[in-house]
Design goal:
This protein has 245 residues and is of the alpha+beta class. The protein is 24% helix and 24% strand.
């Protein structure tokens, strides 16, 4: 690869529960075989109805206690939603880090209230991001008549670096990683620990076009020749190797 294009899918409306995301995207883009579509988790969650009004939530004593220990002092009802979406709380002082039902380790279980109409509505992560990516891929195959890869992305913080970057939560039609262990580097030396998180790299590149306020939740990545298949779940570090668990 010597050339890579990042093409914004422009003109997408506000996505609502039940909307056909594949049709919305295919009608506003000219997908080609081999393209990779990176779509923001937020619009996937909206289309799948993964929304909850805080008016329907009652905060537990634990949620109230945790909220009082966090920097942002969030609404305890939002903390309750975070707890409900998690299987384990890993840190609850200053920031709330959890392990989600999907297996991700991240802030606030991925629960978010940005870019959503209404003051008391939050989005949840898709129940099965890999399944979401696969359904969207099959929908685009039917509507656009081409085989593409799909990544469902979201922004995550990183323990050893400042700032957030887009990572791949769901993957379909392309490998999530490329394992170079056992191959040789340019000097002929064997590689022992090099596994490239290519789906995360693609998601991060697409994030440059998405922005956070540009209303561009879908980006076509063109020019990569990716063979094989994988899942976003493959990129989750096993608990035995995770410094947080």
């Amino acid at each position: 690869m010597t050339h890579l294009e990042l093409i914004a899918v422009e003109g997408l409306p506000e996505v609502r529960p039940g909307d056909d995301l594949g049709r919305l995207i295919s009608s506003r883009s000219a997908l080609k075989a081999g393209d990779i579509l990176v779509v923001a988790q937020k619009v996937v969650s909206k289309s799948e109805g993964r929304l909850i009004s805080l008016q329907t939530v009652t905060a537990s004593e634990e949620a109230v206690r945790i909220a009082s220990n966090l920097i942002a002092e969030p609404d305890p009802r939002m903390v309750q939603v975070v707890l409900d979406e998690s299987v384990r709380v890993l840190r609850s002082h200053r920031v709330l880090i959890t392990e989600t039902r999907q297996g991700f380790v991240c802030a606030n279980s991925g629960v978010d209230h940005s870019n959503i109409p209404g003051d008391d509505v939050v989005t949840l992560l898709p129940t099965d991001p890999d399944g979401s990516a696969d359904r969207l891929r099959r929908s685009l195959r039917e509507l656009a008549g081409v085989e593409v890869g799909v990544i469902v992305s979201d922004t995550f913080g990183r323990p050893w670096r400042l700032g957030i970057v887009n990572v791949a939560l769901g993957v379909a039609g392309l490998p999530a990683s490329v394992d170079l262990r056992g191959t040789a580097d340019d000097a002929g030396k064997p590689l022992h620990a090099t596994v490239l998180a290519v789906a995360d790299e693609i998601a991060a590149a697409a994030g440059l076009v998405m922005g956070k306020t540009a209303r561009t939740p879908a980006v076509i990545v063109r020019g990569l020749q990716m063979k094989g298949s994988g899942r976003g779940r493959d990129l989750v570090r096993p608990a035995a190797e995770d410094l947080f668990r």
